[in-house]
Amino acid sequence: MALKNLGDLPVLPLPESFALTAAYNEDSFPNKVNLGQGVYRDNNCQPWVLPSVRKAEETLHNQQVNHEYLPIAGDSKFLTKARDLLFSPEIGSSENITSLQTIAGTGANHLAAIFCARNLHPKNVFISDPTWDNHHLIWEVAAPNVTRKLYPYYEPSTRGLNFEGMLAELENSAEENDVVILHACAHNPTGIDPTKEQWKKIAEVVGRKKLFVVFDCAYQGFASGDTDADAWAIRYFYSTLFAESSSLTPAGMFVCQSLSKNFGLYGERIGALHLVTPSSNSPEGAKAHLVQFVRAEISCPSLFGARIVQTVLDDAELRSKWQEDVRIMALRIKGVRTLLKLELEKLGTPGDWSHIEQQIGMFSFTGLSSAQVQELKEKHHIYMLSNGRMSLSGLNESNVAYVAQAIRDVL
Ligand code: PMP
């Protein structure tokens, strides 16, 4: 039905993490703490420009680069480096991987969704329960005819993975060509990843049922501090399911790569989408369609982030400096996990807090209720998502005792 009056459109709420940051910025309380947004902060609560990235900026400045348009698919040198970072140089050069530069990880997810909806026509997309909230919005907007179904992921009673539930849902409800979104590592928001043995079983099911895999990889390096180790699941799926001899090849596989977090390039919006096609299929038609969607939406991607990433990854010395930067971020977050757990225990806070230390990546799924989260905000000026997700990078040696005391209080 046509809209008669623009004023009839309902007002929609801001996404929670953005609304929280806005509320935090308005808050004049001196000891306020932002544990809402998934961005890295240093031990003084400040944004951290990675030293390797600073160096690359200087190099680019001295090169007096121009500002011409990129090709629609993006900068080919950047794409080779980004692809090899995910898949390894051995796998990366395979002909059945097609790569396009995107507007960060969100743009990669969006492009994957629009491609699937328009070309693959799956009945359902399976999304982990819970997940990054934008997965729902992206698929709602880009693929309105695809039914969004949740697969069990988090089990509150064990604060762990509901692996049996996840596998049973895919086994019983997914049909050939359906899409399944998998978080490659450092699952957002739970901080819980499948083990290697569990990944192998997931791969077997998605291959046997000929599903279409969408790996979302936004935190490569944040799970272990090692970007190769964090790409294990993606490389395993590629090597076993897409080998010519495999009888378990899925319909296809996208990998949505964000370089926002591991390069600290949040606002530069840099990422890539990689499509893996079964070896019997030519990738040319799929690539042409992806290129056409990019042309319609953004014409061609943006330059600066691609130049930074390519400059860092192309230079052996800078690359190892960057790997050290990633390790520093991952280790600092690991360190505050331990600090928070110890502080909570020191205060005799009721409950078992070992999950805070055991969970992986940037977030902890604390188990706090939405009412407790609300009280933390109203009474203690501590901001986190209402589902109990805490972005640990907002914690540091100076505020961890305050946060632990506040949690003790709301419990
Ligand atoms: N996927 C997941 C799971 C995320 O957590 C995020 C960032 N919050 C993204 C994708 C997208 O990140 P960006 O668009 O900033 O690269």
TrEMBL record:
<keyword id="KW-0808">Transferase</keyword>
<feature type="domain" description="Aminotransferase class I/classII large">
    <location>
        <begin position="31"/>
        <end position="407"/>
    </location>
</feature>
<comment type="similarity">
    <text>Belongs to the class-I pyridoxal-phosphate-dependent aminotransferase family.</text>
</comment>
<dbReference type="InterPro" id="IPR004839">
    <property type="entry name" value="Aminotransferase_I/II_large"/>
</dbReference>
<dbReference type="InterPro" id="IPR015421">
    <property type="entry name" value="PyrdxlP-dep_Trfase_major"/>
</dbReference>
<dbReference type="GO" id="GO:0005829">
    <property type="term" value="C:cytosol"/>
</dbReference>
<keyword id="KW-0032">Aminotransferase</keyword>
<dbReference type="InterPro" id="IPR015424">
    <property type="entry name" value="PyrdxlP-dep_Trfase"/>
</dbReference>
<dbReference type="GO" id="GO:0006532">
    <property type="term" value="P:aspartate biosynthetic process"/>
</dbReference>
<dbReference type="GO" id="GO:0004069">
    <property type="term" value="F:L-aspartate:2-oxoglutarate aminotransferase activity"/>
</dbReference>
<comment type="subunit">
    <text>Homodimer.</text>
</comment>
<dbReference type="InterPro" id="IPR000796">
    <property type="entry name" value="Asp_trans"/>
</dbReference>
<dbReference type="InterPro" id="IPR015422">
    <property type="entry name" value="PyrdxlP-dep_Trfase_small"/>
</dbReference>
<dbReference type="InterPro" id="IPR004838">
    <property type="entry name" value="NHTrfase_class1_PyrdxlP-BS"/>
</dbReference>
<keyword id="KW-0663">Pyridoxal phosphate</keyword>
<dbReference type="Pfam" id="PF00155">
    <property type="entry name" value="Aminotran_1_2"/>
</dbReference>
<protein>
    <recommendedName>
        <fullName>Aspartate aminotransferase</fullName>
        <ecNumber>2.6.1.1</ecNumber>
    </recommendedName>
</protein>
<dbReference type="GO" id="GO:0030170">
    <property type="term" value="F:pyridoxal phosphate binding"/>
</dbReference>
